[in-house]
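Re: beginner question about structure tokens

> Can someone show what the tokenized structure looks like for a real chain? I only ever see the sequence side.

Sure, here's an example I had lying around. Input first:
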Amino acid sequence: MSLEKWQIKNNICFLTLPNWEEHGARVLFSTRHGGISKGCYSSMNMALHVGDDPEAVLANRQLLMELAGHNLSQMICCQQVHGNRVVAVDSSHAGCGSVRFEDALPDTDGLVTATPGLVLTTFYADCIPVFFYDPVRRVVALSHSGWKGTLNSITAKTLQVMYDRFQCQASDMMIYIGPGISQCCFEVQADLADKVISAFPNDRDIIIMDQNRIKWDLKETIRRCAVNNGVAENRINVSPWCTSCHTECFYSFRKEQGHTGRMAAMITLVNGDDE
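And the corresponding structure tokens:
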């Protein structure tokens, strides 16, 4: 069962987790609707690195940040490279990558913070956003889990940073595996399937044979990785939305053959005054 909720404000359509916000973490996942970008980026492209007009992207970012009650100076972005490097950030990183891609944190696909008000932000067009929250120690995290990040266990790496750096406990952890390409649409070649089975030998059923096609269930792989690292199954929420199936709502790199924009995933530790 998914706890995500669709909302439309100021003609901007997005997903939230009201239950998390009640406990102190604001989550937002944008769609492709509500912005000013044109052409294949229409209309809420949030990424500066895909060839869109930078002024349109910044306007879109500002619209979304204002809707969430924040501003661009609070946003922290990373130069996603499909790796598994996770960085703990604080107020000294505020604004990194918010207006210039070159200023985003390099060689990074995951962010963790215990600083209220910072907006951890990553960008998507089929890869899986993974949101983390420890409401006891008040720590949030966000990781970009494409197939390479999933294969290299970025979820486990993110949890380890939270455990080691902030003394988070697995029993307190909450995880939301957001919209992304689902098993129905993620077809892979045999050599990659072999690598997946080698990396996850006890979970061979995450690779599915479908009429001579090989498919990989990324979301289930991420979910099991979280469970194997101590997170209770009933504290993991998985979005049913497939970005490739629903290009009326989401950008899809695979479905649109690379000519498309990016959604934004955002998580913020809410100040007590804002709750």
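Each token stands for a local structural state, so reading them left to right follows the chain. The chain is about 20% helix and 25% strand.
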